[in-house]
């Protein structure tokens, strides 16, 4: 499998995890409507990934480029950000594309792009599918600014991807309540937060809610038949977790599946401080009385 295909195959699994999280997450409420989700605002926070604040434009762009790896943009949209058809790896998703970002970005203002990322609503096409806005909604203003600054440096390349066409299988998943719009996922995750362990672990919680939550659910309790509750961190040493989040390698003999790809291709871009903070947070969370 080529590097491009390995990224996309992993991204499809993350996308499916997001679908499952919607089904297994909080129940619907009055706020679980596309119109309400589209109006959601990022939660106020003083935290940001390392390097988010600088007076140097090039440094901010470099920080945004790093976030494009950490947050998985280059997983779904491929390393070149030219996009691909999810159906190449999961037939029910055929016709749903990770867009060629290099082609659509010039047509959006920064405000429109931020709204799309945070709410899962396209400025002209409306609701998006298989877009992890549920985690992007929690990104700090400084991190969002840096990410957009980086995206603005990318020159158009490749072919434009078509608007989504839902397969009969996808329509069946929608009717069954399994596949939801990105906007509805935003509402689900907004009501499902990782436990607050106080100031000491606040930065680690910020990193976890913007990274781990995409696969392990808004509250990090895992997704049935896909990902475990992150209380599993109690069975790892800090050194083992550091290795996992740097190289994608687990304990000898362990079968990690998607985590092997995410650990190597996404979490390896964390700074040592970010990695240490998220490890400390998930281990402290695992130590809480169950």
TrEMBL record:
It comes from the Bacteria. Residues 1-24 form the signal peptide. One of its GO terms (molecular function) is metal ion binding. PROSITE patterns: CYTC. Keywords: Heme, Iron, Metal-binding, Signal. PANTHER family: ALCOHOL DEHYDROGENASE CYTOCHROME C SUBUNIT, BLL4482 PROTEIN-RELATED. This is Cytochrome c. It comes from Flavisphingopyxis soli.
């Amino acid at each position: 499998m080529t590097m491009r295909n390995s990224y996309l195959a992993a991204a499809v699994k993350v996308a499916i995890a997001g679908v499952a999280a919607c089904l297994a997450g909080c129940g619907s409420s009055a706020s679980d409507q596309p119109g309400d989700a589209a109006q959601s605002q990022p939660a106020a926070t003083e935290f940001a990934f390392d390097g988010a604040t600088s007076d140097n434009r090039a440094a901010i762009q470099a920080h945004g480029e790093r976030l494009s790896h950490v947050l998985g943009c280059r997983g779904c949209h491929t390393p070149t950000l030219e996009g691909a058809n999810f159906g190449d790896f999961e037939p029910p998703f055929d016709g749903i594309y990770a867009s060629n970002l290099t082609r659509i970005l010039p047509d959006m203002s920064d405000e429109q792009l931020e709204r799309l990322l945070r709410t899962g609503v396209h400025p002209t096409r409306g609701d998006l599918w298989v877009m992890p806005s549920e985690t992007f909604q929690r990104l700090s203003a400084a991190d969002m600014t840096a990410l957009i600054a980086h995206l603005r440096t990318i020159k158009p390349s490749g072919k434009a991807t078509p608007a989504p066409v839902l397969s009969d299988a996808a329509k069946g998943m929608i009717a069954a309540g399994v596949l939801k719009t990105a906007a509805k996922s935003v509402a689900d995750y907004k009501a499902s937060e990782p436990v607050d362990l106080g100031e000491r672990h606040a930065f680690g919680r910020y990193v976890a809610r913007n990274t781990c939550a995409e696969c392990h659910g808004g509250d990090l309790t895992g997704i049935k038949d896909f990902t475990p509750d992150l209380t599993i961190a109690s069975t790892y040493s800090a050194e083992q977790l550091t290795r996992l989040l740097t190289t994608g390698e687990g304990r000898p003999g362990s079968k990690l599946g998607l985590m092997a790809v995410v650990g190597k291709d996404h979490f390896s871009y964390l700074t040592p401080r970010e990695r240490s903070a998220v490890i400390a947070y998930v281990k402290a969370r695992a130590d809480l009385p169950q």
